């Protein structure tokens, strides 16, 4: 069994290290029986073994639903629970996602110690709908960040992205819980978004 990793909080207590959004997304798609091929973030130099960053050829995943493939980019809120929209995607990511069917798997937690489903929400959003949400938040509301739940100053993803909210399947025994990917997630949105 893998050793659990912990970090030390301000008061010295041990806190579980949150799972990465990419791991959570990969597990959700595997449970839905989709091929989710992780793109390389870095690799070892064949000559010296040093870790080097790969070029910007891939987004986080290539997912293969119903015989075709889509891009999937995974985004998480920062440790304070904020998602800073203008800096969330690099220019090359926006360009690549605009050229082929792409989706955003977004995970927002109220705090680093939140554990799904309490204080955590996940969304699977078509790229055009994500861009529309960004425009609404930045241009119409005049703010640059969102949180999971709305505050007086910031809109909440739970309200803005409710249509694409994922449901949590609790684990049992040694099986971890996971976010449920709708069986025909593309078909639900094809007419309007893709």
Overall pLDDT level: 80
Question: What count of domains describes the coordinates?
Answer: 1
Radius of gyration equals 17 Å
Largest sheet geometry: 5 strands, mixed
Q: Helicity range of the residues? A: 10-25%
Please state the second-level CATH architecture.
3-Layer(aba) Sandwich
Q: Tell me the total number of β-strands.
A: 13
What is the count of DSSP helices, taking H or I runs of 4+ residues?
A: 5
The low-confidence runs, each spanning 5 or more residues with pLDDT under 50, are: 1-10, 12-18
Pattern of helices and strands: EEHEEEEEEHEEHEHEEH
Spatial sequence of strands, sheet with the most strands: 3-6-7-9-10
| CATH domain topology | Trna Endonuclease, Chain: A, domain 1
**In percent, how much strand structure appears in the residues?**
25-35%
Distance between the termini: 42 Å
What's the CATH class label?
Alpha Beta
Structural class label:
alpha+beta
Q: Sum up the overall morphology in one term.
A: globular
Structure, explained:
With 194 residues, the protein is an alpha+beta fold. The chain has a single domain, classed as Trna Endonuclease, Chain: A, domain 1 (3-Layer(aba) Sandwich), CATH 3.40.1350. It contains five helices and 13 strands. The chain has helices spanning 21-31, 91-99, 127-140, 157-160, 185-193; strands spanning 6-8, 14-16, 35-38, 42-44, 51-53, 61-64, 70-76, 83-84, 102-109, 120-126, 145-146, 167-169, 178-180. The strands form five sheets. It has a five-stranded mixed sheet with strand order 3-6-7-9-10. The protein is globular. Mean pLDDT is 80; it is low at 1-10 and 12-18.
């Amino acid at each position: 069994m893998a050793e659990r990793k912990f970090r030390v909080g301000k008061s010295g207590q041990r806190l579980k290290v949150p799972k990465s959004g990419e791991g959570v997304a990969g597990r959700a798609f595997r449970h839905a029986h989709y091929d989710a091929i992780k793109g390389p973030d870095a690799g070892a130099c064949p000559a010296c073994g040093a870790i080097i960053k790969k070029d910007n050829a891939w987004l986080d995943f290539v997912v293969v639903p119903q015989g075709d493939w889509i891009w999937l980019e995974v985004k998480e809120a920062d440790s304070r629970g904020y998602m800073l929209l203008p800096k969330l995607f690099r220019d090359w990511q926006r360009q690549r996602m605009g050229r082929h069917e792409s989706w955003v798997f977004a995970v927002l937690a109220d705090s680093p110690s939140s554990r799904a489903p309490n204080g955590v929400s996940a969304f699977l959003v078509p790229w055009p709908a994500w861009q529309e949400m960004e425009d609404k938040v930045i241009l119409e509301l005049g703010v640059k960040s969102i949180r999971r739940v709305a505050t007086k100053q910031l809109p909440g993803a739970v309200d803005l992205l409710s249509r694409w909210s994922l449901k949590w399947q609790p684990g049992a025994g040694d099986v971890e819980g996971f976010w449920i990917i709708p069986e025909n997630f593309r078909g639900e949105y094809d007419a309007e978004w893709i």
